[in-house]
Amino acid sequence: MIAQSFQYESPQTLQEAIELLHRHGEEAKILSGGHSLIPMMKLRFASPEYVIDINGIPGLSYIKEEGGLLKIGGLTREAEIEHSDLLKAHFPIFADVTKLIADPQVRNMGTIGGNLAHGDAANDHPAVMLALGATVVATGADGEREIPIDEFFYGFYMTALQHGEILTEIRIPMPAPGTGSAYHKLERKVGDYATTGVAVQLTIDGNGIVTSAGIGLTNVNPVPMRASRSEEAIVGKPISEETLKLAAQYASEDCSPSSDLRGSEEYKRHVTGVVVKRMILKAAERAMR
Amino acid sequence: MLKKITVNVNGTEHTAEVEPRLLLVHFIREVLSMTGTHIGCDTSSCGACTIALDGKSVKSCTILAVQANGKSITTIEGLAPEGGPLHPLQEGFKENHALHCGFCTPGMIMRAKELLEHNSNPTEEEIRWGIAGNLCRCTGYNNIVKAVQWAGAKMRGEELPNTEPQFV
User: Fold this and answer.
1) ipTM, two decimals
2) Which of A74, A148, B97, B116 has minimal CB crowding within 10 Å?
């Protein structure tokens, strides 16, 4: 399959890339890892006139801790996230999620910025970002602006990013002591989109009380979804059969999956509840370790 | 509009003017006439088109040739010198009957190469996760796993596993 013809630009600075995006407007698409964009172009679901390849811009790929925040550059590859010692030490959820994203070759190309900016509710990082309370940094002609993750996903392939903006960084608060996180998705085979996916981060105090919780869901809603009622069901109490049951039930009720080859709506609601329960337990176990 | 690119392929620099929409796998097969890199699914699922781009295994059906400008590529043809000894992975696949039809083999080997560079002694589970992006439609995975272990042992300079078929 061959994409429709387009013009290729490979800016060497962020400034240059932003100028190109402004000049070409809606006819331009940003090429990051390319493993969503190029397949769409080959299938001609996307036919941009200009492809702006940002891979030559230095300084957009990093994982670092700074001022109480974890900062991940938009161009950071999934493989780097998968093997990062900093992330292994503080955010086990990243090793969980990257292992389940596509396959090793795709992870050598795919970027976290692309995964989020694509705005696909079937992608895995959005749910993780919801659970971790991330902030997305968009850089445009007027400089940087911060977008809270709860205001980032708008609709089908739609995000708060404006034309001329590039997702340059993701900021995540470093976890408080007693915090654990976990992600799992059910998939039919390697590289498949999730039948359902659940990301959980929670903090448990010395008395065993859950003091904060973030729960995000993958591919069971038209947009990446925060399971707010499930979060409320477990905060302020110790983890018990009762709170687990409620959290699972609320996630099942509040999500809005569609029936497809991966399962019926009823099945997806059911397994979403099951995985919510399991991920709360796994995150709690890690929190208390 | 054509773009001029220079790519180092298996140690040799190649310069060509290409359409931006030309896929890297087509550049390798059709412009450079190196057909060891295969096209299977053409949708980044099967891994037959796996090559090393600056040392990292990637699927060349989902990369534009222009993205490889200024970079180095290794394909299956670059693993062993012509007429010289085979790469341990090539030898391992041969010794362990890890080729059935052979279509997936170049991609399997190019993927396994990076896997062994990161982990010289992988477990069976690590190998299976490591080649999760490569499909063998002959389903010859057992012998492929053995071939990767055999190559790892050879590269570590250890005693080689028995390659005789085991009847149980």
Assistant:
1) 0.96
2) A148
Q: Which percentage of chain A shows pLDDT scores above 70?
A: 100
pTM summary value: 0.96
Nearest to B122 by CA among B149, B147, B156, B159: B149
Q: Taking chain A, what is the end-to-end CA distance rounded to the nearest angstrom? A: 50
In this structure, which topology does domain A180-284 adopt according to CATH?
Enolase-like; domain 1 (3.30.390)
CATH class label, A63-173: alpha beta
Report the residue from A4, A41, A106 with minimal CB separation from B44: A106
Greatest C-alpha distance within chain B: 62
Q: What is the rounded average pLDDT of the residues A153-173?
A: 95
Which H or E run includes A166? strand A166-173
**Count of domains in chain B?**
2
| For testing contact with chain A, the best of B3, B59, B62, B126 (most A CBs within 10 A) | B62
Query: Rounded to 10 degrees, what is the CA torsion of A244, A246, A247, A249?
Result: 120
B168 band by pLDDT with thresholds 50, 70 and 90:
low
Domain of B43? 3-78
